[in-house]
Design brief:
It is a single chain. By secondary structure, the chain is α+β, with helices and mostly antiparallel strands. The chain has a single domain (8-410), classed as Cytochrome p450 (Orthogonal Bundle), CATH 1.10.630.10. The protein is 48% helix and 12% strand. It is built from 16 helices and 14 strands. The chain has helices at residues 22-35, 55-63, 79-88, 100-109, 114-137, 144-149, 151-161, 168-179, 192-215, 221-226, 237-250, 253-268, 270-278, 283-294, 325-328, 363-377, and strands at 38-41, 49-52, 68-69, 141-143, 229-230, 233-234, 299-304, 308-310, 313-315, 320-324, 381-386, 391-392, 401-403, 405-410. It has a five-stranded mixed beta sheet. The chain has a three-stranded antiparallel beta sheet with strand order 4-14-11. Strands 5-6 form a two-stranded antiparallel sheet. It is globular, with a radius of gyration of 21 Å.
Length: 411
């Protein structure tokens, strides 16, 4: 085996703070794509991994899902967290490979089908109106992230699950603590053990919900999960709780990050904002560009099930790879002028939802939420500007803006 390429620029991928400084992050990722697209990273407290930064290589790994598996390390976490989650037995959809992944994914698939999305459309439009009205009533200034972007998609996904509205604030707190475990503002303590507390509390909440739905099933996704069977056997408690956890977090934090980042992009590109407001027929392309621009899921991990190569670089069986979506979505070989926000971009071959068998289950719902929110907001938005410094969350997995102070005029 040839000597592995080790490029110091790749260390940003093992630094949660790097995602709070987009200039630093993308300078490093651009250098990696040009000089070391497959680079070995060994930075404690993480176990070593190969950084995969080019779009073509990310796609090649995604396609080879039998060679590069999700199990046992789907997300970059400190080694202690890897071991703790394994000991608990957490196994969500992102931890699974086929055939188990296909079988478990099918449990909720109908709830995210085109037919179901059409049925959800009216409710999502009502929620979009509700939050735009709240912006109007706020008096022309707000922290767009905390007052709008985190709440609107939270209400959508909790409505889908059938969680009582009185419990939404608790779900928001827990999802932010789980996704924000690397961020000083969101995490509970510096302790890995304490970080798991939020997950334990979420599991306890959904255990109560499961018991309720098994005793008295209702017409919601929680009932489908609670009463699901595989080969005639119900899901175990940990399987059921894991399913709820991935729906609650993935269905909320990714979309809120896209809406917040999309709002910032439209404020910073007023001509495109005005054009989109005047022609909502551009919304589909604009939505895809917001998703590419933000890339809320920064990376996923894969593990080599056998000796393999990526871009000519040998990867040994058992070694881990980090697929940098943040880098792939700025790849100069795929996107013309990739650092330009462009609501007309077509084609837009972003990998923000992944690719292949693990393509995001909730992609259609996320697209609908983003599109309907801005379709309601923009025709009513007379002016908008930043009212303070935007702040990004520290992360190595899912994230975006955590604060976006804005000033606006809204009808």
């Amino acid at each position: 085996m040839s000597m592995p390429i080790v490029d110091d620029a790749a260390k940003v991928l093992a630094d949660p703070a790097a995602y709070t400084d987009e200039s630093r992050l993308h300078t490093a990722l651009s250098s990696l794509r040009a000089n070391a697209p497959v680079s070995l990273v060994d930075v404690p407290p993480y176990k070593p991994f190969w950084a995969i930064t080019k779009h073509a290589d990310v796609m090649a790994v995604e396609r080879a899902n039998q060679v590069f598996t999700n199990w046992p390390r789907p997300v970059l976490m400190p080694a202690a967290s890897d071991e703790m989650q394994a000991a608990v037995g957490i196994k969500t959809l992102i931890h699974m490979d086929d055939p188990q992944h296909r079988i478990v994914r099918a449990i909720a698939a109908d709830w995210f089908s085109p037919k179901s999305m059409r049925a959800m459309g009216e409710r999502i439009e009502q929620l979009a109106v509700r939050y735009v009205d709240q912006m109007r009533d706020a008096g022309g200034e707000c922290d767009f992230v905390q007052e709008v972007a985190v709440n609107y998609p939270l209400y959508v996904i909790m409505f889908l699950l059938g969680v009582p509205e009185a419990d939404f604030p608790l779900m928001l707190e827990l999802t932010q603590e789980l996704i924000g475990s690397d961020d000083d503002e969101y995490k509970r303590t510096m302790s890995e053990t304490e970080t798991m507390t939020a997950l334990a509390e979420m599991f306890a909440y959904f255990k109560t919900l499961t018991d309720s739905r098994r005793a008295n099933p209702t017409d919601d996704l929680a009932s489908v999960i609670a009463n699901a069977t595989i080969d005639g056997e119900p899901l175990s408690d940990i399987e059921t709780m894991s399913y709820y956890a991935i729906i609650a977090t993935a269905g909320h934090d990714t979309t809120s990050a896209t809406i917040a980042g999309g709002m910032r992009a439209l404020i910073e590109h007023p001509a495109q904002r005005e054009e989109l407001a005047a022609d909502l027929g551009l919304m589909s392309r604009a939505t895809e560009e917001m998703i590419r621009w933000v890339t809320p899921v920064k990376a996923f991990m894969r593990t080599a099930a056998q000796d393999a190569k990526v871009n000519g670089v040998p990867i040994a069986e058992g070694e881990s790879l980090l697929l940098s979506y943040a880098s792939a979505n700025r790849d100069e070989e795929v996107f013309d002028d990739p650092f330009r926000f462009d609501i007309h971009r077509e084609p837009n071959k972003h990998v923000a939802f992944g690719f292949g068998v693990h393509f995001c289950l909730g992609a259609a719902l996320a697209r609908m939420e983003v599109g309907k929110f801005f379709a309601e907001l923009l025709p009513r938005l007379k002016s908008a500007e930043l009212a303070g410094e935007p702040e990004l969350i520290a992360t190595t997995f899912v994230g975006g803006l955590k604060h976006l102070p804005i000033r606006y005029e809204l009808s």
